[in-house]
Structure formats: structure tokens, C-alpha cells
Amino acid sequence: MARIRIDEEHCAAACSRHFGSDATIANLRRLSGGASRETWSFDAMVADGPPQELVLRRDPGSSIGGTDRSTEFHLLRAAHSAGVPVPEVRFLLSEADGMGAGFVMERIAGETIPRKILRDEQYERARGLLTSQCGEIAAQIHAISLDDLPALPVQNARTQINQYRAVLDGFGEPHPAFELGLRWLDERAPTNAEEPRLVHGDFRNGNFIVDENGIKSVLDWDLAHLGDPVEDLGWLCVKSWRFGNSDLPVGGFGTAKELLDTYAAISETAVDEEQLRYWEVFGTLKWGVICELQGFTHLNGLVRSVELAALGRRVAEMEWDLLELLDA
Amino acid sequence: MPDPDTLHDRPSAAELVIAVREYLEQDVMPATEGRIAFHARVAANVLGIVERELILGATQAAEERARLVELLGHEGTIRDLTIELAKSIRAGDWDSRQAEVLPCVRAAVRAKLEVANPNYLPTEEEK
User: Fold this and answer.
1) Minimal C-alpha gap between A21 and chain B (Å)
2) In angstroms, what separates the C-alpha of A14 from chain B's closest C-alpha?
3) Backbone angles phi, psi at A317, to 5 degrees
4) What is the DSSP string of A32-101?
5) What is the pLDDT of residue A194?
6) Distances (CA, A) of A123 to A87, A126, A210, A226
7) Where are the beta strands (DSSP E) in chain A?
8) Rounded to an integer, what is the distance from CA B67 to the centroid of its chain?
9) Using CA atoms in the order A129, A130, A136, A141, what is the torsion angle rounded to 10 degrees?
10) pLDDT for res A117
């Protein structure tokens, strides 16, 4: 496969093709962050219109799990129609664009870096709003009719537990701490009599674009699936996403009570702390397995990257957190 | 302290790694921005892991092997014993003996963190 080059020429050709009018490109640059997907920022001047501020999101190599970009594109469109704050998608890359699998969406101004959101004075007011906004937005996502969504796999707790065991076996590296966690999760797996809901799958601090008024946009729908909606709430509380503010379980900015109260008020679904804890343990294990997966994405040559290599050694952090949670 | 059992000249492997880490931290990071600066910081952190593993690795391995031999009751390499432990946990063999297996697994994870990210471990006051 020829190596794909992302340059102004290719972006201009793609924009001209999809917008149906000659486009020129400026300020193309690769954004940091996103260890598993590439994101590029650029401005497009199309015909006589004002410059469009855009983002290209694409797969760097072949996919390493998660949805494909076309599914993510249609998901974002469905979420946008349902009133969930997400960037508006513009077009899906086609074969003729020669830039691989990806899509272009509007660029939303704001901050995504968790440490800034948690510490900068600029976001002080926002910090007071984030927890209830998370509860509201999660309820909105979980209320989207399945009829409006692209095909997504149903992944309840037990199907994912089995997937993680298979993933770990595939790498062949033994992890007694993960095995203790998987055993704990397997024994307590919820049976979910209710119909599965849309689960964002990566709903956390770091995937929110935030300004002075709180959450403007929810990004990274790459791990979306159908399943138990409490999974999103538990994942939001995983210790890694508190970025040092360990005593505030919700993203390092809020309490579980406020999150669950807001969520219950809008979704009319009561979630108890025990359910939340189950999915927090689950999320801790999931993040640990993802770290290992990303380490191996580097090791097996799919994407060579020092960032991915470093994630392989972060596995121990999640093993530690998992043991702490099991022991509590 | 110089390694009494090496034929190589100073700087030692650990000292060379420190030199590269300092170059990344002091020269590359301040002179770059965005993605390159971020990856330079990641790379410096990675070299910190290598430094600690070079210093602590041998002692940690001896301790880990001793713990696993004690828990499983027979000799073996760390890898083979860990594979056996992981499989037996998955099979449910330790379900009624969590109190035996947890301290052993926790000690191994603690040792990994002492190398990978010692700041992640709780300090004495936090315990």
C-alpha cells in the first residue's frame, strides 16, 4: 500500500470534490493527542464564502478496533440531530480523495486538555457546570432511538469480558491482576433485561471540548456500541480520567451523587452507586487492556510511535487501581 | 556506583540513558512545540523508565521469583510461573483463596510501578 500523504493539495482536492466548488486550503497542521486516530486541523476557502474551520479525522494505519470512520461519521450525524453537542460532520472521504479512511467535520473552538480544564482560572465557572452537563448529555445519548443509528455491535458486560480475555490471550502476556478483575466482573455481570442503548464508549474528561460555559462538544465516538448505558457513567469515573483530582470521581470535577441525580432527572432511570462502581471497575480494566493494545500496536509495527510504546507500561497503573477497587 | 561486573567503560548504560533524557528535557522540549514537544516529553519519561529498570530490575526479579515460587509451590521462570498463576485465576482456582493471591499480585504490580511510574504509588501519608 502506498504511503498516504496528508497535504494541502490533497485536502484542497477533497474539499473541492465534496463541496462542489473550488477550494483552497490554509493552516493545515496535525493536532497532538489521539493516540489511535490522526486528527488534522485546516481552513478551507470555498468559492466566495467565509473560511471554513475544519478538522480531518482519519485512521493512520489499518483499524485497531473500534468503529470504522464511516460508522463514526453517521453516528455523529445522528447525535447532532438528536441535539447532543457534537461537531457537525461535512463529508466522508472517498476512494478518489486518496487520504485513506476518514471524514471532515467542523472545528469547534475550546479546550480539551484535562489538566487545563481542571486547573486554569478561565474554566472555574465551567467546572461548576461540567458534572450536571455530563449527566444531561449522557441521558441524551442514551435516549437516541436505535432506528436512527448506523449498525453497531451489541456489547454487554459479558461479551466485552470475553473479548478482553481473547485480546489478552492474543498478546500472550500474562496479567494476574487483570485476571482477578475479569473474574470479579464476570461473577457480578449485570443481566440487562432492558433493551440495549447507544453507549458512547469513551465518554470522559479529555474527549469534551470545554469553554467558559462548560461542554461544547463530545468527541471520539470511536468506541461506540449498544449496551448498558451505565457503562458510560462508570467510565467517566475511572481514576485515570480524574487527572490527579482523585477525590472528585466524575472526571476530576464532580461527585457521583450530582452525576447520578442529574442523569436520573433527565433519563427517568435511577442508577445506584453499586451499578456505577461495577462499571468503574469494568472501565479500569478496559483502559488497562487498551493500554496494552496500544503498546502492541507499536510493537507489531502497525503504527510505530513512542507515545504508544509508553502506553504499554501504563498497564501497571490500571492493574494497581483495579486491585485497590477489588480490595475496597 | 560503578558495576563491578562489567567490561564496558563509563558512562554506564544507565548513565547514557540519563544523558539522552537530559538532552530531550533541556534542549528538545524548550525548542519545540505541539506534537513534537509532547512526544519529546513522552520520550524523556520512557528513558526514565529504562533508568529505573536498569537500576532495580535484577533485585525485583529475584524478589518476584521468590514470591511466585512460594505461592505456587514449585520452581520456574517468572514468565512460566506468571502464566500459570494467570491461568489458574481465570479457572477460578483462587476464588476461595483471595487473601493468599492478592498480596502476591499486588507486590508484583507495585514493583512494575516502581519502574514504570513511581509517582503513581501512594506516599506514606496517603496510605
Assistant:
1) 32
2) 25
3) -65, -45
4) S--SSSEEEEEEEEETTSPPEEEEEEE-SSS--SS--HHHHHHHHHHHHHTT---PPEEEE--GGG-S-S
5) 77
6) 21, 5, 8, 33
7) 23-30, 38-46, 52-58, 89-92, 102-106, 197-199, 208-211, 214-218, 225-227
8) 16
9) 150
10) 98
- pLDDT given at position B124: 72
pLDDT of A63 reads: 43
Instruction: Tell me how far apart the alpha carbons of residues A82 and B31 are, in angstroms, rounded to a whole number.
Output: 45
Query: Which residue has cell 525548542?
Result: B31
pLDDT for res A66: 64
Give yes or no for B9 touching A (CB within 8 A). Answer: no
* pLDDT of B5: 86
Complex prediction ipTM:
0.94
Q: Which amino acid is at A281?
A: V
For residue A232, which amino acid is it?
A: D
Q: Which CATH number fits domain A8-106: 1.10.20, 3.30.200, 2.30.29, 1.10.1660?
A: 3.30.200
**Please, are residues A161 and A182 in contact by the beta-carbon 8 Å criterion?**
yes
The pLDDT assigned to A328 comes to: 77
Give the tens place of pLDDT for each residue, B35-93.
899 999 999 999 999 999 999 999 999 999 999 999 999 999 999 999 999 999 999 99
Cβ burial of B122 (10 Å; 0-12, 13-18, 19+) is: exposed
pLDDT band at B121 (very low <50, low <70, confident <90, very high): very high
Closest approach of A116 to chain B, Cα-based (Å):
15
What residue ranges do the domains of chain A occupy? 8-106, 109-152+195-271, 157-191+272-328
Query: Any idea which residue has 453516528 for its cell?
Result: A75
What are the domain boundaries of chain B?
13-120
Bond preceding residue A85 cis, omega within 30 of 0:
no
Chain B contact for A113 (CB, 8 A cutoff):
no
A contact residues 175-234, partner B, Cβ 8 Å cutoff: 175-180, 182-183
Residues of chain A below pLDDT 50: 1, 62-64
The CATH superfamily label for domain A109-152+195-271 reads Transferase(Phosphotransferase) domain 1 (1.10.510.10)
**Which tens digits make up the pLDDT trace of A276-317?**
999 999 999 999 999 999 999 999 988 889 999 999 999 999
Pull the grid cell for residue A193. 433485561
Beta bridge partners of A289: none
